[in-house]
Design goal:
heterodimer; A: 432 residues; mainly beta; Neuraminidase; 3 helices; 8% helix; 35% strand; globular; B: mainly alpha; Four Helix Bundle (Hemerythrin (Met), subunit A); 4 helices
């Protein structure tokens, strides 16, 4: 009888844990609906387990064709299109040094691993070149190897910069190069102790004089202690010549991709917000980044919404917190950002940004797992996000998970890194 | 003949003392739940995150070994022939089961992040599981003493 009671108790717990979402809430755009905080006894976790593409491809809007231009990669993350149209892909998996400190880490780690590829990160940058202009690369080389979980990529003034999980490395580059000469030179070390959020997103300023690097927090919400959050949840501005750095913005929990808005040379980032306040808290966001701005983490979210899980509280910091510009939805895990330039992909896709959404793991109803288009006008978002590339989920299984996105102005296409099927997808208008 | 002297009770183990392994298993919740309570109180006082991490592991250890102790208790209750022995083991089983359930809820509570990992609910559950585990240990280990009294009569 006792055991039956335990069994009943356990199933009641499981039900209580399944915090269901309210589909009527609009969690995108400048004014997202924010429900009340809901800390369930068990944080809901549900990840889409992998399934193969079996010759199929993600789905793009009518008039676009989707092709796999590189397969068999080793965990592709971010993509950079060089001035000559060559494509660089950073491949790696970091964060292995984050210690298991609680029983929960063991369980959450296992659940997250179910949604990941079994391939080991390549710790390299691969170069893809389309020599005959048919949109299909016919040359593939290892541009740089022996890296340490490379993620962010930037090009500036004859140099390629790679953001490893612990440092920015510079590789001298000449037009047409397919392989870096030498191991590269370390420009600056990046905070890497624990590296709970290990990805170091990077972009170069419009004039090429500065690099911006995103350094994610060392925890969800301070559960590793606030001492280890020194220099975390920040965006650094790094002088490209000297390697000197300063904190450009702070309180950004996990800035996972950055890009310069071509309309006004402003720095924009996508950021992943905190977990375990409910399936519809807190929305991940896309925002312009203000010099010296504080965006709330860990004390508050979306402006002045206080997070009770931080102790001691800091009301002054809460008051100072900037509300982000544009919500993308809760737990979508935005990991890619790219503005189009010139006339973009034409039609509805002439002015705006693409955002890659890796997909949720801690809400019951899956969110993200797609690439969305955010239309811009006058340098600001001008409408709701629209699905651009979908079909990553089929029958509850993930066939792929989008990470970095890159607008290719040379080839007139969008490139999408997929770190589950280890593919780079190319989405281009069908030529009439 | 025994039947000729109804006032004298037979000297035989009406209630067995705990099997040594059962006693060792029961020692885990008895020691670890109170330890978790102490580290919870320390966390609430200091906000040093390591104390709530300690609590989470202590509770997990209490649940793991306490689960086996509970299973053992349930089996000896079910297998007991004497009503008194069954009742006695039943009390231990119920106390252990309640301690275990409180501990399970507390393990979930401690899986929350940061300051939310303990809170009033965490401390209350720690107090509950501590009292219940100590009570289970007390009653469980009383059985051997009862037997000694019976034997010495």
């Amino acid at each position: 009888m006792i055991f039956r009671h335990i069994a009943i108790g356990a199933s009641a717990l499981a039900l209580a844990a399944c915090g269901s979402s309210n589909p009527d809430l609009d969690q995108t755009g400048a004014q997202p609906d924010l429900p009340k905080q809901r800390q369930t006894l068990l944080p809901p976790m549900n990840i889409a387990t992998p399934a193969g593409w079996n010759g199929e491809a993600p789905k793009a809007p009518a008039g676009f064709a989707v092709t796999a231009i590189a397969t068999g990669l080793k965990v592709p993350r971010q993509i950079l299109v060089l001035p000559n149209g060559d494509i660089l892909v950073a491949e790696g998996m970091g964060g292995q040094d984050a210690p298991t400190v609680r029983p929960k880490d063991v369980i959450a780690g296992y659940i997250k691993s179910m949604g990941k590829t079994s391939v080991k990160g390549g710790n390299r940058v691969t170069l893809l070149r389309d020599t005959n202009g048919d949109g299909k690369p016919d040359l593939r080389t290892e541009f740089a190897t022996g890296l340490n979980a490379p993620y962010g990529l930037a090009y500036a003034d004859g140099n390629i910069y790679v953001a490893d999980q612990d440092a920015v490395i510079r590789f001298p580059y000449r037009d047409g190069m397919t392989r870096a000469e030498g191991p590269g030179v370390e420009l600056v070390k990046l905070p890497s102790r624990i590296n709970h959020h290990w990805t170091k997103a990077m972009t170069a300023s419009a004039d090429g004089s500065k690099l911006y690097v995103g350094i994610g927090s060392n925890s969800n919400i301070g559960e590793r202690g606030l001492d280890v959050e020194q220099d975390r949840a920040q965006i650094w501005e790094i002088d490209r010549q000297t390697g000197a750095h300063r904190t450009y913005a702070s309180g950004v929990r996990n800035p996972t991709a950055m890009a310069i808005n071509p309309a006004n040379a402003q720095l924009w980032t996508v950021a992943n917000e905190r977990d375990e306040l409910g399936p519809q808290l807190v929305p991940d966001y896309l925002t312009s980044v203000r010099d010296g701005g504080f965006y709330g983490w860990p004390y508050s979210y979306w402006g002045q919404n206080v997070d009770p899980r931080v102790h001691p509280q800091k009301p002054a910091m809460v008051r100072a917190a900037i509300r982000p510009d544009y919500a993308l939805g809760s737990h979508v895990a935005a990991l890619g950002l790219s503005f189009v330039t010139g006339t973009g992909l034409g039609g509805n896709f002439a002015q705006g940004a693409f955002v890659g959404e890796h997909g949720s793991w801690n809400r019951q109803d899956l969110s993200g797992y797609k690439v969305v288009w955010v239309p811009f006008a006058n340098g600001r978002p001008s409408g709701k996000p629209q699905d651009f590339l979908t079909g990553f989920i089929k029958d509850g299984h993930a066939r792929g998970r989008p990470v970095g996105v890159a607008y290719d102005p040379v080839g007139g296409a969008l490139l999408v890194a997929d770190d589950l099927s280890n593919t780079v997808w190319r989405v281009a208008p069908v030529r009439p | 003949m025994l039947s000729a002297q109804p006032a004298v009770r037979p000297i035989r183990p009406l209630r067995r003392s705990l099997h040594p392994l059962h006693a060792l298993l029961m020692a885990f919740p008895v020691a670890l739940f109170p330890s978790a309570l102490l580290s919870d109180v320390t966390y609430v006082k200091t906000a040093q995150i390591q104390w709530t991490n300690f609590s989470a592991w202590l509770i997990t250890g209490a649940l793991l070994f306490g689960g086996f102790a509970l299973l053992w208790s349930a089996i000896v209750t079910w297998a007991a022939r004497e009503p008194m022995e069954r009742r006695h083991n039943g009390v231990v089983t119920v106390l252990l089961a309640l301690a275990w359930i409180a501990g399970l809820f507390n393990a979930f509570q401690h899986s929350h992040d940061g300051w939310a990992s303990v809170g009033t609910m965490g401390v209350v559950l720690s107090v509950l599981s501590t009292i219940l585990a100590l009570a289970a240990g007390w009653v469980g280990h009383s059985q051997g003493r009862v037997l000694a009294v019976e034997a010495g009569r």
